[in-house]
Protein: Cytochrome
Amino acid sequence: MGCHAHQKLASIATSLDAKRLMAISLGTTRLIISSHPDTAKEILSGSSFSYRPIKESARLLMFERAIGFAPSGNYWRHLRRIAANHMFSPRRISCLESIRQHVANEMIEGVCREMNEKGFVEVKEILQKGSLHNVLVSVFGCDLGLIQGGELGLMVKEGYEIISEFNWADYFPLGFLDFRGVKRRCHKLATKVKDLVGRSIDERRRNGVYETQNDFLSLLLSLPKEEQISDEDMVAVLWEMVFRGTDTVAILLEWIMARMVLHQDIQAKARSEIDVVTGRNGPVRDSDIAKLPYLQSIVKEVLRLHPPGPLLSWARLATHDTHVDKHFIQAGTTAMVNMWSITHDPSIWTDPWAFRPERFIEEEVSIMGSDLRLAPFGSGRRVCPGKALGLVTVHLWLARLLQQFKWVQSVQPVDLSECLKLSLEMKKPLICHALSQ
Structure:
């Protein structure tokens, strides 16, 4: 399938008239794929698919004890309660605004510096650096963000490379072999993560100053005794926050900025909306976002055309025999939703290949999981717990970047070719000009 698996599976489903459900096999892995909102809802919201299949590399990198991949049960439900009530509550998200604003200022300075030194901006590099800094400070506080951030950032990059690799052992019973050294690399990386994050937990506990801090590490340490989790599980949860939180925000923003460069009229309309709300009296704040419906519609349209997790992040595992769309599904079957196929289906979306944010002004479409025509964060009990924080970050940074600069094409044309790795990335990173407003 390569880097276009989402497109190829969509094409196969269309040619076989199998959008509602298609069955294939990958080695010994039985697989069903939905490319339709109705069957997608059955899979994602049904209790029969409450587990997520976990690749060998993800399990070895401790994700089996984190929120995303932990098996359904008391432990997983406990993690979800902690996430909903503490880590991603509206109050916690609001408390983290100062960090988001600080990182936005850093990114703006980085854009100015690149324009002065190079005459162009390598957008991906600035966004990834800013996103990593934002996540590290939000998760660990300023100490680790400033002192050890570089080391942990390299670990995140290495983890992406390992998990993105095709591993024969995920599809065939070849546990005694280690193709491409995946197991060895995972064990080595997991040891480094345990050491670094474990030392940070010990140091914060020794200092004893965490009740008044806003970062996630301090939050977990200050939980009531009956809600606390072990240090080993805390390492897994914090590592997942850094690993999953860095990638998606930067990738989504790069797609948005590429669209802004290509569609100058839409960029100008968004900037005009920002100017009306802020009156050019200061930077956009979180409280302004609700007054920027066109900006929000731009984000929705990019999520529709370029969903960060179009296929792989949607996998579920049938825990017992069940039915989907009246078809018998055997226990142990992996189920996927091809969200890219759904968001590009002309029977669901008018003129689906056109970039037209106005469609979300004309019709209100929720992207939080209730409407399976566009559910970029998942749906049902396995919906992404950090979706609200991610959206707040993307909206604020986009508004700040549009408020500060006019983004135009450089000598290198914008290429919208896709490459599916762990997330759906731009095949050729965006390089453009940023003109001060």
In short: Residues 2-436 form a domain with the Cytochrome p450 fold (CATH 1.10.630.10). The longest strand covers residues 29-34. The chain has one domain: 2-436.
